[in-house]
Design a protein that fits this description.
heterodimer; A: alpha+beta; Rossmann fold; 6-stranded antiparallel beta sheet; flat; B: mainly alpha; MetI-like fold; globular
Chain lengths: 630, 288
């Protein structure tokens, strides 16, 4: 039993194809994780990297706290079940299950005990003397599971184990694997392309596409809060309905204007509080997502009000419910309108060719950007959009008047602040009240009101109705005036261009009381003509990712936090452009080789300063392949 | 109408079947007749030369066989050939299986160019390099030496990888992977998983490895010339044919008896391993 940690995992093939890009995940002990996605999305490759059957191109893979990047599969204490079962055809079922134990050189009694126990759990005791070819698909898959569980692995890896079985057997085996997980209390990582398997089995699901993780969440959250249109369409049967539309805020209501029709539906604004305000201008195209069960035929009393019309093409009666298929109805008879699938009770009176009026469950509405396809109604909003007034060095924000930090010195006037939710802290001078609290994947999101405005904040542990004093971390905010950016936030990371080099040094060492000179080789980063030696761990990771020859000839980008560079007596020479004073904190805005660098400082400085990088906490990026190595 | 159509189809099928069988019988006869003549001649009791104008012996006898084993060096040559063939078979089979497994499963730099190079080199007839190889071996004092012959026959073994690799390619890689996760090293995977599944191709490799040195003449005659104690059967028997005195003494029928004895191990091997042999070839090339 163990946790699995994947940090910046990449799989890049020699021809440059990226099968997996920047995969980050912490899998807890005893979790049942499902990787799901269409063919070629990188899910099996990721699993095979965990198994050790594929090399990790870059990143750090840990099983049970141990880095296993270079460990042989047999030493990782994992077991794997393959799609084609991979049973040894020349061995009996007993020998198949016992094979791994025999290689471990366990005593015969112990092997026999474990094999018979596993066979009993899986109900294959009577087949132990048979060869795999004499068994059916379901039985073979049980043998494959048996072979995996007798090894009592820390992590069980299952690569589409049910896809070769028929539908009925698949449902049965699905339940059995879930039961097995409960019984064994081991970490399971399961790969499938079938979203039903993923939804029914996983404690958490990883949705992947084109090598990128799209969302990692519980089945329920994936279904209810998809982060993008792909996840929304991939999860759920029938597929989510998508309608092109525009949103227009009028007073305390938001109108949804469906493209290609004159259909118009109003939603109360408070239900869309989390939406990014830019999308409410009636011009920005969005995609409205609604599941089939959230669309139903309008009852007679509601007809004509807040409904949309659907031209029904056909229906599927499933006994307990009916699926109605059609397209959005247009008065001008346009042929290409959005398809609609709705789910209603079995006894509905609608037929092919009808124009039906349908109501939408607006509480379940999802909204996506048409271009980026990302949700514009996130569970945790990125920014608070707050209006403020600057006058005489003070800022009037959310009903309070605060001193404006020197770094932000703006002319008097009205501005809009983009305040990230994590920039709202609880030690300021603005009075606010907690309206509601919501737990989003372990993060507490607080909805506050301050000065009559809605403010979102994370990290505070306050009950609903509590009065709190909030503040704003000014170095993280963006100040806008009439759509123009007046002040940009401090970047989270500084980037420095450098090369990875080998240097020879002559060192003197004391051997038997005599000092001896010897040549030593050190690896490190070179920037601005200066050499900075790095710990062995860092050079090992770089060599693993690129190979020695490439590592020593490729350019790199170092990523350092705001406090990852410190002013020192020697180091990278930087020119101070400005001192940014945020009151409690001060930063130097410097330039190094044309790049802007921000460095935390205690004292004001000017002219040239030397900066010492902290390599222990630095990120290393290979800009050529766009891979984060560390 | 329907019935007539059915009948004519059956008739045409029967005609084509008759024709196919007739063709096969003729081919078999053409193939078998020389062998039958050889067997019949080996039992001829009377001493006539190579040019006798009748086929069946005037009196049947085992005399040629007795003479073969008592008055000639045939048994020694037979032993030499058997030694060379068995050693070559063992070495070549091991090398071919290992090379094929490596080329099928491991991915290394220049793997494909290496495979192509081996395939192309294998297409050149061996005698092209014969003179050069002879001089190299002479420098090493390995001519007129069975070890030298074994060395030459096994040297290019790895080039026979193609069919065997094709067979290994058909064994799912997930078996190797499952075994590796189960704790097996590459070596264990090869011995415990792949080899037991590769029986047909092992048999095929053994057969082809045995046949080649068993009947090889050209290189052996070149290498072993001058020392009739080191001769293989092919070289020895050819030396009889070249000796007109021996032929005049009726050695032709002894030659025929020797040819029959030479064919026994190969025929026996073929009959015994026939089904594996066919499975081996098709298993490797068609499924792959």
């Amino acid at each position: 039993m163990a946790e699995v940690s994947l940090k910046h995992i990449y799989k890049v093939y020699p021809n440059g194809t990226k099968a997996v890009s920047d995969f980050n995940m912490e899998i807890a002990d005893k979790e049942f994780i499902v990787f799901v996605g269409p063919s070629g999305c990188g899910k099996s490759t990721t699993l095979r990297m965990i198994a050790g059957l594929e090399d990790v191109s870059a990143g750090e893979l840990k099983i049970g706290g141990l880095v296993v990047n270079d460990m042989e599969p047999k030493d990782r204490d994992i077991a794997m079940v393959f799609q084609n079962y991979a049973l040894y055809p020349h061995m009996t079922v007993y020998e198949n299950i016992a094979f791994g134990l025999r290689l471990k050189k366990l005593p015969k009694d112990e092997i026999h005990k474990r094999v018979t126990e596993a066979a009993e759990i899986l109900g294959i005791t009577e087949y132990l003397n048979k060869k795999p070819k004499e068994m059916s698909g379901g039985q073979r898959q049980r043998v494959a599971l048996g072979r995996a569980i007798v090894r009592e692995p820390k992590v069980m890896l299952l690569d589409e184990p049910l896809s070769n079985l028929d539908a009925k057997l698949r449902t049965q085996m699905r339940a059995e694997i879930s039961k097995l997980h409960t019984k064994l209390q081991t970490t399971f990582v399961y790969v499938t392309h079938d979203q039903v398997e993923a939804m029914t089995m996983g404690t958490r699901i990883v949705v992947m596409k084109d090598g990128f993780v799209q969302q990692i969440d519980t089945p329920k959250n994936l279904y209810n809060y998809p982060e993008n249109k792909f996840v929304a369409s991939f999860i759920g049967t029938p597929q989510m309905n998508f309608f092109d539309a525009k949103l227009l805020k009028t007073g305390n209501e938001v109108k949804i204007l469906f493209d290609g029709t004159d259909a118009e539906i109003s939603v109360p604004y408070p239900s869309l509080y989390k939406i990014i305000p830019d999308y409410l201008d009636g011009k920005t195209p969005v995609v409205i997502g609604l599941r089939a069960e959230d669309i139903s035929l309008a009852p007679a009393a509601k007809k004509g009000k807040n409904v949309i019309k659907v031209a029904v093409s056909h229906k599927e009666e499933l006994g307990n419910e009916t699926l109605v298929y059609g397209n959005l109805y247009t008065t001008d008879g346009a042929a290409e309108t959005a398809p609609v699938i709705l789910k209603d009770t079995a006894d509905i009176a609608v037929n092919a060719g009808d124009i039906a009026e349908v109501t939408l469950n607006l509480g379940k509405i999802r909204i996506f950007d048409k271009q980026t396809e990302r949700s514009v109604l996130p569970r945790i909003p990125e920014y608070n959009y707050l209006d403020c007034t600057v006058k005489g060095g003070n800022i009037k924000l959310l009903g309070a008047e605060l001193a404006l930090p020197e770094a932000l010195s703006c002319a008097d006037g009205k501005y809009t602040l983009l305040v990230p939710v994590n920039a709202v802290n609880f030690d300021g001078g603005i009075k606010a009240e907690v309206v509601s609290r919501e737990d989003v994947n372990g993060v507490t999101l607080l909805a506050l009101t301050a000065g009559g405005k809605r403010v979102w904040a994370v990290g505070g542990d306050f009950a609903e109705g509590a009065e709190v004093n909030i503040g704003v971390d000014f170095k993280k905010i963006t100040v806008m005036s009439d759509g123009e950016t007046v002040f940009s936030p401090m970047p989270g990371l500084n980037e420095i261009d450098c090369n990875f080099v080998k240097r020879k040094f002559v060192e003197t060492a004391e051997v038997n009381g005599k000092s001896k000179r010897k040549k030593v080789i050190r690896f490190g980063f070179e920037t601005d003509g200066k050499f900075f030696e790095v710990p062995d761990d860092v050079s090992r990771k770089i060599f693993n990712a690129l190979g020695v020859k490439k590592a020593l000839s490729s350019p790199f980008k170092l990523q350092l936090g705001l406090y990852g560079l410190t002013v020192a007596e020697s180091g990278i020479v930087a020119t101070v452009e400005k001192v940014l004073n945020f009151g409690a904190e001060k930063f130097l805005k410097c330039t190094v080789g044309g790049r802007e660098i921000f460095v935390g400082t205690d004292a004001d400085r000017e002219g040239e300063v030397c900066l010492a990088p902290d390599f222990l906490n630095a990120g290393v990026v290979d800009p050529k392949r766009d891979i984060k190595i560390i | 109408m329907e019935k007539k159509k059915y009948k004519s189809k059956k008739l045409s099928e029967r005609i084509s079947l008759v024709m196919v069988y007739a063709f096969l019988i003729i081919i078999s006869l053409i193939w078998l007749i020389p062998f039958l003549v050889l067997i019949i001649l080996s039992f001829r009791g009377e001493q006539v030369g190579i040019s006798a104008d009748y086929l069946f012996p005037k009196h049947w006898s085992f005399g040629n066989y007795i003479k073969l084993f008592t008055k000639t060096k045939f048994l020694r040559w037979y032993g030499n050939t058997m030694l060379v063939s068995v050693v070559v078979t063992i070495i070549q089979t091991v090398i071919v299986l290992m090379t094929s497994y490596a080329l099928s499963r491991l991915r290394f730099k220049l793997r494909k160019p290496l495979m192509n190079l081996m395939l192309i080199l294998g297409m050149f007839p061996g005698f092209l390099s014969m003179t050069a190889v002879y001089f190299v071996l002479k420098e090493l004092n390995l001519t007129q030496n069975l070890f030298g012959l074994i060395l030459v026959f096994t040297a290019s073994s790895a080039m026979q990888y193609y069919i065997c690799k094709g067979f290994f390619d058909t064994i799912p890689k997930s078996l190797d992977e499952a075994a590796r996760i189960d704790g097996a090293s590459r070596h264990t995977v090869f011995l415990k998983i792949i080899l037991p599944l590769a029986k047909p191709i092992i048999i095929y490799t053994i057969l082809t490895a045995f046949i080649a040195p068993w009947g090889e003449f050209m290189f052996s005659s070149f290498m072993l010339k001058g020392d009739d104690d080191k001769f293989t059967v092919a070289v020895g028997m050819k030396s009889w044919l070249d000796n007109s005195t021996l032929m005049a003494e009726g050695y032709f029928t002894v030659f025929c008896a020797a040819a029959v004895v030479v064919s026994i191990p190969i025929t026996a091997l073929f009959i015994w391993l026939q089904r594996y042999y066919v499975e081996g070839i098709t298993g490797g090339s068609v499924k792959g």
